[in-house]
Each structure stands twice: as structure tokens, then as C-alpha cells.
Design goal:
5-stranded parallel sheet, alpha/beta
């Protein structure tokens, strides 16, 4: 938020809500607080205020964490200095001012008063001497509301440009930002104000469960969805989730992709639809589904989701109507073009949206370009010829570096009718868009054109290293950097920074065009094979790190490449490289486990098994496919058939010589036995112990630790507490020694819960804190929820009613949001909260109210001792 090179706090750009912290006495200035809140919300900013009611002032730790997450400080002072808490020397009012960062903008409003507390007079005098704070006097709440709105508007105008000083996110932050956040547009959005307002009105009515933005490729559906999502944050207080479906081609992958975006880890233990329904239930959220036309057969799934989650709304972009109940269609219009046959307006204020867009994009490659009397008629002709299609106009504008407006207009006049005639099987505007891309590409040298076509095999984004790997024996080999730069300049490829490296991407319609051209040349299979080979090698390099000390970084790298991993495995199966596909899936087993992709992998493996009759596979591949296909069945639909199927996996792995995989399959079969309606715990324990011994012998620390966790859970439910502790101890020891932080967190949390249940409060508290720190480092929200509940249990046992209640509710919010509802058997905090609810109901109620408002970082800070805050500050900054 604050640049060290700038004297001012940097105000964030519009993709994030600016948070305004309001400091005042609660009761004395209740009316003033209300109007200030109205003023802040009128500016589409986020007020940060305490309205708990049960206490004169919230705990210092809480408002400290709120201040740390805020951007602007507003102080409202009247006659009262405010309450001074026991063991404190100053009131919360003064403490908040002291804690506000020096670089944070401070707007101070002082109410006219004949009598004022002496200590408040001293504070005001100190503020007036502070050159970092601006202060004004006011008489009434009505005066205050207008003044606050005006001052905030001026502050944002003064500071907005400084947002450019914010550093690029690191790799972990970039990976986290891929999940759920609304993308930041590459360029300025022009001419969509009325459309944004219209779609916002549809969403605000609340009567339509699915609003579909329909139109041809290149008309700006995704951009309109992004801008609408940013403009409707106030309508959806529980969040907006942006689900990119561009690389999702199978209808069966809709639910896994939504789950991933919501932060739901699919470990196979419950049906995804059930988890998603649980996560959305009772929450007023907007789920944006971009590029739905590729999986339109999955549209009925949306009906099932909104039926069980009636407060969730879906905003869909698609080239075709979904035709489901509850759908409201919004036909995305083209941009307005100059009226009649007249020239473009030279006056910027009366310029049509299409011409304004052309000028804006042309200025990016030719600074100083604008409409004049000489080019006005040609610009109007270009925009009319391109029918106001935004992408077509951008492609044409990119040519202004090498052609004059007259040259562009002439070439379009000659080329476009011929090109559109060649694609008469497409609707009219689809033809125009496709022909414009064809015209733009026809102006490229052969090397750049062939590179663009080859790039069509990539999904969503790609790196220079991946392009270079594809370039072997291609016409553009050795010219990747210059050719890519030229394609970026021509608006055919987009470039951005992620994790300190350049990444590239194609718009969906450009990728579709490129792949079509590649197929027409008969080169698609060859280039796709090179793409698959590169990602097979990438996985071989990265997978070994998943079980060790570089685990977190490996998960981040794989997450950034997930769309291309999908494309690679899809190609391996499509081209009948079934054994390669099996090896690919098996080598990423730990990644599927940590990130939760078992439902998605199951689809691939079932497709692989269907092809084995015509294309023989090895025993090892068959075992891998069955194991991954049965994983979810083991938890969701346990049966003797599943146990038998996993037993067959043990046999196949053994006969193929993979003792390591056979031991893991044996552990899975034991787990399946425990899930049966009539479980055989004795036999399951025997198999788990045998698996552990083999895995220890083979040196597979990750699988040994996970299996020890299973043994511990089994011992716990059987009442053998000492055995359970011993297994959790061993699991933690093995995982930590190998650098497997994820399993360390899982095992440590279970050990802490059992210690707590046995009355070992000090040991439990220490472990809960350590597992919470690990979970924050891994950005593992399930682990954070468990850690918060653990600290809550200890706080409740010590009689800290407010803190325990706040943490319990904050953990519950995370649970609901990510669909965790299957671990109640190991819950330990609720009995103590029930006791406190009887002893101190007022504090419990106040704590619950506060907990519902806590962000994840705020809850973590409340849970951790003060001396641990610095440990997690960097990780929480990226949360």
C-alpha cells in the first residue's frame, strides 16, 4: 500500500476495494458514524467500522489488525475522549490515531462543542500540529456527509496515479490471485458505461438466477463481465468469484473448476456438488463463468446449484444461450459508430465509442495520434466496416504504426468482403470478426504468422521457455523473442508479468483461429505432441519437489501451469499415449492431494480405461487409472466392490514391480474398509501397519506420514488415545523431517486436538499455533480453519469468552465458504463454548458478532500471540 519511494500512501487501483477506517466514540457520535458510512459507500469504498454494541470499545488487537488492512483513516471527534480500558493509559480513540501508519492519509473532522474533555482537547491540539493529517470543523451530521464524500473524492484524484508504484506480486501472490479474483483489464474499457449499468440493474433486481452475456467472439463479453463484477461488489457482500472456463472443454470439469475457484479442496471425501452447495448456502455471492459456450451441455448443473444455494447469482459469458430455467439473456451490443455516412467527430466529447477505442489503442503504438480533418472520414469508415466490434477495432488500430488510416480503410474495403464470403457458415458478426483476424494476420511476415498459429496449442497462458521448447525444427526457431514482441505490438498476443517473469496469452477467439489454421496446415497433432512432451518433462522436473522442502513452490508452479497440464494430458489420451498419461497422472499424486483435483483426474482416468480395449496399456497404467478412479468412490460410496477394486490395484502394482505404489494402494484399501457400513477395523489396522512398514522401508516419507495419520485417526475413534498420539507423533516427525509442510500441518493439528481432549492444554496450544503458522505459509484455508478452532478451544478452556467466540465464528465462515463439513467427529471446541455461553452470554454474543466481520488475516492475528505476528505478516499480506 505504501511505496518507500513516495511521500504518500498509494491508493489502490479499481480492481480492489479501498478500505476507510473510521475512528470515533461509538455512542456519542452514532449519527455522525451513520452518515460517514453512507458517504464512504456512496464512493463505492469499503467502510471499516466497529458496531459491536456490547462493549464501549473492541480489543486493541482487533482494531490494530483492522488498521493494518485499511488505506485511509477518518477521525470524528466531539466532546468525549472515550473509554479507557483497564490496564490502559489512553482511550481507544487516541490509541487508534497513534497506531495509524504515518504515511496513511488522515482526514480529521472536529464537531463544534462548548465543552470538550481535556484529554480530547490535548489530542486535537496534537493532530493540528501533525502535518500528515487534514482537519476540518463541522456542525451537523448533514454537513459532515457531504464534506467526507468531497474530501475522499479529492484524495483519490490526487493519489490515484501513484498506484503505479505498487510492486508486482511474487509467485505465491500471483498463484493466489488466479483463484477467485476478478482479472484486471489489460487496457482501458471504453464505451460500456450504459451496458455496465444495465447489467448491474439486472443483477440488483435479484429475480434472475443466471444472467447470460451473449454475443460473438471479440464483442467484449469478458470485458463487460469483468467491469460489471467490479461495479457490483456492493450487491454481493459475501464475495465475487471469477471462474475462467477458457481451457475447460469437458462438461464434467465444470464442477471441479468452480470448486477450485471457490477454494474448495476436493480430497474425494464428499461429492463436489454437495461441497459447492454447502459453500454457497446462505451467502450472497456472484459467480462469474467466463466462456461457457465450450461446455454448454453442463448448463443444467447451474440449475441444481442455484436451487440449493438461492442467494447465489451466476453471471455467464457465452456465444450461445444456455436455455435453462432462471436465465436472463443480455445481448452484448457492438460499440457505437459514427452516425450516417459522416466522418468521425474531431471533438473528443462527441466522439463515438468505436472511434474513441480506435484512437486509444492507436495512441499506444503511435503517441500523439488523434482524429483530425484529414483522417476523420477514414476512421469512421474503418469502424463501420468492422461493425463496432471491439477486438476487430483493436487489431486494426495496432496497424497504425505501419499504415495510415487511409491505408487501413482501403485494405479493409478490399479484403473484408472476400474473407467474410469464405466463412459463410458463421453468423454475420462472427464472420466479420474472423475475417478481421485473418486480415490482420495476413499482414504479418511468415515467421510471425506461423508462430501465432503454433501458439494456438497453449491453454490460457504460457512462458517464453515453453515457446522455445516448441520451436525446435519450426520455421521460427531462434526468433521467438522478436516474433513474440511483434505479435504483442499487433494486439494478437497479450503480455503480463507474473511471479517476476513474463507470461503470454491469446484471447480465446485468437487461439481458436490459430488452432484452426494449424489444423488446416495438417500440423496440429505435431505441435500438440511437442506441447505435451514439454509439459511431461516439466512435470518430471517438478514432481519430485512435492514431497520435500520445495513443496510450496512446486505447488505454486504447477498451479500456474494447470491449464496447460490439462491440455497436455488431454492430448496424451486423445492420441492414445495412454501409458504416458498414466505416468503423468501418477507422478502428480501429491499435487492432486494437496490442491484437491481428484474429481477432475477421475474423468481423465475413466476415459483412459474406456480406450484400453482398442489400445492396450500396461498393468501399471491400469492400476493407476483404477486407483485414481476409485479414490472418490472410497469416501463417497464405500462398498465391498470398491475394497475389491483397490485390492486389484495392489495386485497390479505388485506384478508391475512398483512396491511403493502397491503399499499406497494397500493403505487406500484399508481406509475403504473403515468407510463401510459394517467396518472391519481390525483388518484395516493390520493393512495400514503393513503399508507403513513397507513405505518406511522404501523411503517414501510422504506416503508413510499420510498412512500414519490414517492409523492415528483409526486409533482415536476406537478409543486408543495413546496409540493415536504415537501415530500422530510419528507422522509429524516423518513429514517435518522430509520438509512436507502440508502433512506436518494435517498431522500436527490432529495431534493437538487429541492432546486438548486429553487435557494437555499447554502442549495443544503450542501445536495449534504451529499448525496455524504452517497453514498460513501454505495458504491452506482448511488448515487455517482447524487452527483457529484449536486456539478457540484453548481460549474457551481459559474462559476467554469474547476471543474464543470470535475465533469460532471466523473459522465457521471459512468452513462454510470452502465447503468443509465432514470432520465434525474431531471437533473439540464446541463443548467449551457452550459452557461459556451459559456463563457469559454477553461476551459470547459480542465475540460472535465481531468474528463474523473478521477477514482471514484479522482472525489469524487474533489467534496468534503478538510475538508471532511478524512471522506471518508477509504471508498475510498476500492473502
Amino acid at each position: 500500500m505504501v511505496s518507500e519511494t513516495s511521500p504518500h500512501a498509494v491508493i489502490r487501483t479499481p480492481d480492489q476495494r479501498i478500505r476507510v477506517f473510521v475512528s470515533s466514540t461509538l455512542r456519542e457520535l452514532a449519527d455522525e458514524r451513520r452518515v460517514v458510512r453512507d458517504a464512504i459507500e456512496r464512493m463505492r469504498l469499503a467502510p471499516v467500522m466497529f458496531e459491536l454494541g456490547a462493549r464501549p470499545h473492541p480489543p486493541r488487537e482487533l482494531y490494530r489488525s483492522y488498521l493494518a488492512q485499511s488505506d485511509v483513516f477518518i477521525g470524528i471527534y466531539g466532546a468525549s475522549y472515550g473509554w479507557v480500558a483497564p490496564d490502559e493509559e489512553i482511550s481507544g480513540l487516541e490509541d487508534e490515531y497513534n497506531l495509524a501508519p504515518k504515511a496513511m492519509p488522515k482526514l480529521i473532522y472536529i464537531k463544534a462543542s462548548e465543552q470538550r474533555d481535556e484529554r480530547l482537547q490535548d489530542l486535537i491540539a496534537r493532530i493540528q500540529a501533525d502535518d500528515t493529517a487534514a482537519y476540518l470543523h463541522f456542525h451537523s451530521p448533514e454537513d459532515l456527509e457531504d464534506q467526507v464524500a468531497s474530501d475522499l473524492a479529492m484524495l483519490l484524484a490526487e493519489r490515484f496515479d501513484e498506484s503505479k508504484l505498487v510492486e508486482e506480486p511474487d509467485a505465491e501472490e500471483a498463484a493466489a490471485s488466479l483463484i477467485a479474483r476478478v482479472p484486471v483489464p489489460y487496457t482501458t474499457t471504453i464505451g460500456r458505461e450504459d451496458d455496465i449499468a444495465a447489467v448491474r440493474d439486472l443483477l440488483a433486481r435479484g429475480t434472475d438466477r443466471v444472467v447470460s452475456l451473449i454475443g460473438p467472439g471479440g464483442i467484449g463479453k469478458s470485458r463487460l463481465a469483468i467491469e460489471t463484477a467490479l461495479a457490483t461488489e456492493d450487491l454481493f457482500p459475501d464475495g465475487t468469484y471469477f471462474v475462467l472456463l477458457e481451457g475447460v472443454l469437458e462438461p464434467g470439469l465444470l464442477l471441479p473448476t468452480i470448486a477450485y475457484t471457490l477454494g474448495i479442496r476436493d480430497n474425494g471425501e464428499a461429492a463436489l456438488e454437495e461441497r459447492i452447495s454447502h459453500a454457497l448456502a446462505g451467502r450472497k455471492v456472484l459467480v462469474v463463468l467466463d466462456n461457457f459456450e465450450q461446455i454448454v451441455d453442463a448448463a443444467p448443473v447451474l440449475v441444481r446449484l442455484y436451487t440449493v444455494a438461492p442467494t447465489a447469482t451466476f453471471l455467464v459469458t457465452s456465444r450461445i444461450v444456455l436455455r435453462i430455467r432462471g436465465e436472463r439473456v443480455f445481448e452484448v451490443p457492438t460499440l457505437t459508430t459514427p452516425a450516417g455516412d459522416g466522418p468521425a467527430s474531431i471533438d473528443r466529447t462527441t466522439r463515438s465509442a468505436a472511434v474513441a477505442l480506435f484512437v486509444d489503442r492507436a495512441q499506444a503504438v503511435k503517441p500523439g495520434f488523434d482524429v483530425n480533418e484529414e483522417n476523420a472520414a477514414d476512421l469512421a469508415a474503418i469502424c463501420r466496416r468492422l461493425e463496432g466490434l471491439p477486438l476487430a477495432i483493436e487489431l486494426a488500430a495496432a496497424k497504425i504504426r505501419i499504415l495510415t488510416p487511409r491505408g487501413i480503410a482501403d485494405r479493409l474495403e478490399k479484403s473484408l468482403p472476400l474473407l467474410t464470403a469464405a466463412v459463410r457458415d458463421l453468423p454475420e458478426r462472427h464472420r466479420t470478426m474472423r475475417a478481421t483476424i485473418d486480415w490482420s494476420v495476413s499482414l504479418l511476415p511468415d515467421v510471425q504468422r506461423e508462430l501465432l498459429e503454433d501458439l494456438g496449442v497453449f491453454a490460457t497462458r504460457f512462458t517464453l521457455e515453453a515457446v522455445e521448447a516448441l520451436g525446435v525444427d519450426r520455421s521460427w526457431e531462434g526468433q521467438e523473442i522478436d516474433a513474440l514482441a511483434a505479435l504483442v505490438d499487433g494486439s494478437l498476443v497479450k503480455q503480463s508479468e507474473m511471479g517476476g517473469r513474463s507470461v503470454f496469452s491469446l484471447l480465446a477467439i485468437v487461439r481458436e483461429y490459430s488452432l484452426g489454421r494449424l489444423k488446416a496446415r495438417g500440423e496440429a497433432d505435431r505441435v500438440r505432441a511437442a506441447h505435451a512432451d514439454y509439459y511431461v518433462a516439466f512435470v518430471r522436473r517438478t514432481a519430485p519437489d512435492l514431497g520435500g522442502r520445495d513443496q510450496a513452490q512446486a505447488v505454486v508452479q504447477l498451479g500456474l501451469e494447470l491449464p496447460n497440464l490439462r491440455a497436455a494430458v488431454r492430448h496424451l489420451i486423445y492420441t492414445n499415449r495412454l501409458d504416458d498419461a498414466g505416468d503423468f497422472a501418477w507422478s502428480l499424486l501429491i499435487y492432486w492431494w494437496i490442491s484437491g483435483f481428484f474429481a477432475e483426474v477421475r474423468l481423465w482416468m475413466l476415459e483412459l480405461l474406456e480406450k484400453q480395449h482398442e489400445h492396450p496399456i500396461t498393468q501399471h497404467t491400469r492400476a493407476v487409472a483404477w486407483f485414481l478412479a476409485l479414490w472418490g468412490e472410497m469416501w463417497q460410496r464405500p462398498s465391498e466392490q470398491v475394497v475389491a477394486g483397490l485390492g486389484e490395484c495392489v495386485r497390479l502394482f505388485t506384478e508391475s514391480g512398483d512396491e511403493d505404489a502397491a503399499a499406497m494402494a494397500l493403505a487406500a484399501r484399508a481406509t475403504a474398509r473403515v468407510q463401510l457400513p459394517d467396518p472391519n477395523a481390525v483388518k484395516a489396522e493390520k493393512e495400514l501397519r503393513k503399508a507403513v512398514a513397507k513405505l518406511r522401508e522404501l523411503g517414501n516419507g510422504w506416503a508413510e506420514a499420510i498412512t500414519e495419520v490414517s492409523l492415528g485417526r483409526l486409533a482415536w475413534v476406537r478409543g486408543a488415545s495413546d496409540d493415536a498420539l504415537a501415530h500422530f507423533d510419528r507422522a509429524t516427525e516423518v513429514a517435518f523431517a522430509g520438509g512436507d509442510l502440508f502433512t506436518t500441518s494435517v498431522a500436527g493439528n490432529l495431534r493437538a486436538r487429541l492432546n486438548f481432549q486429553l487435557g494437555h492444554l499447554e502442549a495443544a496450544e503450542e501445536e495449534f499455533i504451529q499448525t496455524l503458522l504452517l497453514s498460513v505459509e501454505l495458504h491452506y484455508e482448511e488448515g487455517v480453519a482447524y487452527g483457529l478452532e484449536g486456539v478457540c478451544a484453548v481460549a474457551a478452556a481459559h474462559g476467554e469468552a469474547w476471543r474464543a467466540s470470535a475465533l469460532a465464528v471466523a473459522a465457521g465462515v471459512i468452513r462454510r465458504r470452502i465447503g468443509i463439513f465432514d470432520v465434525e467427529a474431531f471437533t473439540v471446541h464446541t463443548p467449551y463454548l457452550d459452557i461459556l455461553r451459559g456463563r457469559d452470554p454477553q461476551s459470547v454474543t459480542a465475540g460472535e458478532a465481531a468474528g463474523a466481520e473478521l477477514s482471514v488475516p484479522e482472525a489469524v492475528r487474533l489467534a496468534l500471540p503478538a510475538d508471532e505476528h511478524a512471522t506471518v505478516e508477509e504471508a498475510l499480506r498476500h492473502w
